[in-house]
Structures are given as structure tokens and as C-alpha cells.
## 1
Amino acid sequence: MTITSWRATRRTRAADEAEVDALIWAWRQACEGAGLFQQVDTATGPTLRVPRLVDITLGPPTVFIVELLASQIAADVRRVAFRMAGHLGAVALQIEPRGLRHVRVELLTVDPLAALLPLELPRLEPGVLLGRGEDGIYVVEDFERGAHTIVQGVTRSGKSVFTYGVLAQLAGNPRAIVAGCDPTGLLWRPFAGSRHEEWQVSGVADPLAHEVLLERLVAEMDERITELPADRDTIEINDKHPMILVVLEELAGLLRCVDGLKTPKDDPGKRLRALIARLLAESAKVGIRVLILVQRAEAAVIGAFERAMCSLRISFRTDNRASVDLLHPGTPADLADSHTTAQPGIALMSAPGHELARIRAPFLGGYAEYASAVATACLPDVQS
Ligand SMILES: Nc1ncnc2c1ncn2[C@@H]1O[C@H](COP(=O)(O)OP(=O)(O)OP(=O)(O)O)[C@@H](O)[C@H]1O
Ligand SMILES: [Mg+2]
């Protein structure tokens, strides 16, 4: 093994040696404890082999280069990094592949998501910024092609701020319509007078207005499906056929409210659920995306079939491990447990083709900043 950064003086060199020895020992212990080992039989009995440290740079930041064991991949280390970090004196480990057989492990002393991620508008880059990962890389979603999305989180965890960010980014895009149901009555106020307004229903004074809107969206979906050219199975998004993002804010509250109107002869809640299920099942190929916001993605609010249709899944702080499991099955128990104390704006995200990641959502500001960003983006509609 090489030590890349001995410090200058003799005295500190001795201290560095002690630190390196301690790190090597801690690494071995942490690997064994987290199950990152292979057992081999030797003449003297079974022995545990752990990935070998081939280089240490003393920090901060302290960095290891680690040789993986046979058939291990970087993701194997990443999966247990959360368990190992504390034992190595770090709050988190950042793991990156180095070639085919090594990983670079950085011992982070501050949470890489601790810093605020300001949302500067207008954004010039394509796609909608959803957040920044622990590796510092921006997570960007192309809603024109992407998937249906579900966002959960307990109260004050950051769902609305996240939604403000997404909607403010889409409001001025001529190829996007922001539609949906908002029983809280806040989300759509800044869109007044814009081309989006006719697709938005607010408040609960007239719960059946939400059903009328969803019926209209399903009719639009059916029309788009009928109009699909013979040689295409997806619609081309353009100004004439914009992407429609259907936001269902506080879905549990909306369903509760509509369920309250149930009579022996009429069940509007059932109709509303059926319309949402149709949108989730059939609309993606014709440029309609659903974004569902709930405190907890439990079966009473969103059935297993509907949940399965939402392939982009984001959980802000949850009340317990089981809630994390609803959207991200297989999350390591200790990561799920620690998410019950996550700061507002910090989320777990699962997306097609991506491993489960921790992200920090962008922060546009409070409601006033949201209102002003949307109003500015919608100005050309309002003036025309
Ligand atoms: N991405 C973020 N970065 C920094 N702070 C945030 C972020 N998201 C939320 N916060 C802080 O947390 C507070 C609560 O967030 P928000 O209103 O989005 O919660 P919520 O999940 O919508 O709650 P509720 O279910 O009660 O509506 C915000 O007022 C803000 O101070
Ligand atoms: Mg909210």
C-alpha cells in the first residue's frame, strides 16, 4: 500500500503513521461489520477477506483507493457505505469507480447535502432540475419523456417547495401545460390569467370540479391516443401537443373530501380513483405525466397498481422505515431509519435505471418567490 500524503515534519509523520494504522484497522472492522467480505478456507481455518486498501491520502479529505474483491462492483461498496461511515470517523462515504477493479472512497466530514441548493430562474439548461446528489451531480428530469412521479413526506418536509421549483421551471415553457387538482388552494393562484389556468382546479368548495377536470384530461388523453399516427406509438411533443403535467397535490385530502359525498347510489371517490388510474396507466405515451403528492404513499391513498406506474419516486422525511419501503423497497434499514430525521428538502429518490440516491431539492424561496417566478414566466400569456 502507498501513503500519498505524509505530512512534512518528523513529529507529524509519526502521528500520520498512527492515523494510517488506525484507518486500516477501522476499514477492516467496518467491512466485516457491514458484510463487505468474502470467506475463504485456509489451512488454519476460515478467514475473512475484505477489499484491500491500496492507497491512502490523509486529509481532509481523507481518500482511500480500494481494490475490490473478485466479482465485487462499486455498487456493493455504495450499498453498505452508510453503515461503514461512522466507524471510519466520517458522516458519509463518497464512492466512485476507478477503472474496473478499484473504487475511490472519500471520507466526508460534513453531509454533502447540508448546503442549500438555490434555484436560479430562468434555467438555461434543458430539463427540470430536481435536486443535487451526494456526488454533487445535478439530477435533471426530462418530463417530456420521463415517467409519472410520486412524492411523499411528512408535514414540513419539503414537498411543496419541491413542487414550487418544478412548476416554476415549467410555467414559461411553451411545450408544457401545468394542470391538476390542488385542494389546498395555493398552488394555482400565481397562474391566474395564463394558458395553464383552464387546466387547474383549486380548493374544496366544489369537490366535483376536480372530477370534471380529470374527465377532461382523460378525454384529451383518449383523443391523443386516437390521433397517434400509424407509424408511432408515442406522441411528438410540440407547441400544438404540449406535455401536460397533472399535479395531484394532497391527494389524500382530496380523496377524503370527495369520499365525504358518497351516498348509497353514488360514489364519486371511486370515479375519481378510476380516472387517476386510467391516466397513470395510459397517458405517458401521449405526453401526459402525473405528479402525485401525499404525506404517506399508503394503500388507502394509492393502490399498488397506481404506485407501480410511478417510476420516479421521491421521499422527503418520512415518519418511519415502513413508509420508505412503500416507495423504495429494499432500502437498507439503517438508511431508512435515518431518513426519519432528514432535514427539510432532503429526499431519497428512485428512478428507472438509477440506484436509490439521497438528493437535496432546489430551493426557490418561499411562497412569495414562487408566486413571483410563475407570474413572471406566465407574463407573455397574460399579456397576449
Ligand atoms: N429544498 C429545500 N431547501 C431548504 N429548505 C427547505 C427546502 N424544502 C423545504 N424547506 C423548508 O421547509 C419548510 C417546509 O417545506 P414545505 O412547505 O415544502 O413542506 P411540505 O412537505 O409541503 O409540508 P405540508 O405537508 O405541511 O404541506 C419550508 O418553508 C422551508 O423553510
Ligand atoms: Mg405542502
## 2
Amino acid sequence: MIRFRRMIALIPIVLMAACGSDGAEAEAKAPAVDPRLRIVEEALGSALPDQAATVFAAVSASPNRFFELLDAAVAESAAAGGLLVLVDKRRPLDPGYEPDDLVSLNDYPLAVTRRDLRLRKAIMGAVLEMDAAARADGVRLVFASSYRSYEYQDGLFKRYVASHGEAEASRFSARPGTSQHQLGAAIDFDPIDEAFASTDAGRWMEANAWRFGFSLSFPRGMESVTGYIWESWHFRYVTKAGATLEREYFGGVQQYMLEFLDAYSR
Ligand SMILES: [Zn+2]
């Protein structure tokens, strides 16, 4: 049924190409039109109504690049068992969800603030590559928080509620099940506070994280979109192609890209 509807939706593109006033030019371009453009437009319309026109204009301007990045990101994500899962205040993970490839950061030459940090093995290649690149630039990345289980997040959130009140706590801390940290692919760098942004590490990550597949999850001034205040220290791995896709088509906003992908993959 869905496939049939999509086929119908493609017909106008073909007709326009064949019957437009500049018919010869349109006909010559017609084979390059990716039939998935219409599906992208539908997904944008349902997931990001406010951003749909802007994003779709960018996609339409260079669709081949868009689909190349999209396909690479989705393939790497699928091979690793889901690196582009949308987790936010409205879309929680299963309480029992735990990645099956968690490894201890103690087994790698990384600077840490505590000895119980774990991340998914699937992202360690990118983590090490990024860390080495930072060191080569004279910058030290210090890992301060990583994978958190549902239970750990539950305790953390309750402590913040006790100290800050529920409304304030929920602006900077996730309820259990809604934290990206449960994915094992999100990292908080030291110091975990707004001072990070003006450290060498903070400036280096802001400029370079995307080259290694990492993206700032909660950018400045985006609380109404992400649900969280600016967290300059919190990065999530979204694959290298995904991080480039986010920069080039989604205004550098991870939440927009993940919401689109969530709708596109349905
Ligand atoms: Zn975090």
C-alpha cells in the first residue's frame, strides 16, 4: 500500500520532466532525479514542519551528495546495530536496553576522570582517531562520563531533582530511559559544565568533532528544540557521514537530523 502510494507520488515528477516548457533540458536532467526525493519531502513535512522547506531546498540543490551521505550513515548505523536512534524526552529507550559491546576506557590510552567509564566498541575507532588528532594539535580531551545504565540515570536524575527541583533538573538532566548516555555512544568531556566551552578542548571539539563523526547534541539557544540547555561538553557519535549530513543539510542541529531519519525510516 505504501509502496503504491509512493509510485503514484512520483508520476508528477516524470510528467513535469516530459512536458515542461523547457522540455529538452528537463528531459535531459530527468534520469538524475532520485525517486526518494519525494519520500524525503514527506518525512521532512511530518517530522520537521518548521524546517522542512529550508532542509528540502538544500537537499534539492545537491540530492546526489545528500543520498550518498544518507546511505553511508544509515549503512554504518545498521552494521553497528543502530547508531542513529532518536532518543529524547518523547522517545525513550527500553529500560532494559544495554549495548552488547561495551568496553572499558581503562583499556585504551585515554585521559579519564574516573575508572568506570565504558563506551560501545563500535565507536572506539572514531574515539581514538579523534583523541589522537586532538593530541596532535596539542589539545587534551578528558573523558568524564560515557555509558550510563537506566538504573544509574534513575539515581542521577533523582539526585538532581532533590537538589534543583524537578522542573529545573529536567532542563539539564534526562529522566531514566531518555538519556543518550544509555546508548553507549555519548560522551561528556571534563569539565562537565559551561566552562568547557572556553577551554582548549571545548574550542577544539566545537571545530573538529564532526570530522570524526561526533556532534554536539544540545547546542546553544536550542532548548525549545532539544529539550535541554546548551551542553557544550556533551557529544554523541552519529557516524562520520551522519555528522557531515547534519552540517550540510540540517543546519548543524543533531535533533533535526535524527527526527528526520526517524520519520524517513518508518
Ligand atoms: Zn551528557
